[in-house]
């Protein structure tokens, strides 16, 4: 696997920027970066350095991984997703070597293709605070840092990491300047952002569905307003539930179900609130600062 070029399909799906609702600041930064990296020669012209690493952090289920997938789909060079299962082994001393191999692979690919991105989803599995870690885990943090530091500005290798943890839970050396130069926070969506996420999610589904799956007259603003406390993943779950209900109705009645309406979603949000007891106005376990 290591020698082969990684195809975008390895990231499972091709996403467009518009598939990710809200999180404008992070999205803008990544859109611009994908354009910037396409014209790397200009770094020399302006005698400036590209960012070595980008760290995307924030509570689970709000589009971090999605954004990187959209970034990967927009880039013309390889994005290598680091599989945690390829890194961690039970053999002593092997895990840091496996991590090292990923960096070597990225450097080789960047030489051939002009650039390569190493993508660490849930990077906290690698760079948790060293105090209190076992020796092997300690070594992996050191290996990561050594490799990040060893990347020359013209190596063409860039690192993207995502984490659901707060930055203070990561090893402080990893977040020091010169390693992850860009840090993007994706917080809980606001009402306006939830409105966009409903829109983006339904449009994304329609692209691949074989029926007309939602009405033209959707009241997206209302949906955004009544889904306070919901993450993007909660919204995706609501829509899934509505779609499955439509399916079940078709099986039951042997008739085509009408497309999804605002009411269908409102009812499902109501039921979801009751079943999941979504705690309104409360951000659990994460502080946006
Ligand atoms: N901003 C968003 N726009 C559209 N869908 C979203 C958004 N955030 C989350 N989702 C939905 O939730 C799922 C999980 O999102 P993900 O990007 O994996 O979250 P994270 O990496 O922040 O934990 C996505 O596959 C998508 O269906
Ligand atoms: Mg994720």
Residue windows where pLDDT falls under 50 for at least 5 positions: 1-5, 285-289
CATH homologous superfamily classification of the largest domain: P-loop containing nucleotide triphosphate hydrolases
* Strand count: 5
- Spatial strand order of the main sheet: 2-3-4-1-5
Instruction: Write down the Rg.
Output: 21 Å
Strand proportion, as a percent range, falls in: 5-15%
Q: What is the CATH C level class of the largest domain, in words? A: Alpha Beta
Domain module count: 2
Say which molecules are bound, naming each kind only once: adenosine-5'-diphosphate, magnesium ion
Amount of helix? 40-55%
Mean pLDDT across the residues is: 88
Q: The CATH topology of the largest domain, please?
A: Rossmann fold
Give a quick account of the main beta sheet: strands, pairing sense, barrel closure.
5 strands, parallel
Give the name of the CATH architecture of the largest domain: 3-Layer(aba) Sandwich
User: What structural category do the secondary elements indicate?
Assistant: alpha/beta
Q: What overall form do the CA principal axes indicate? A: elongated
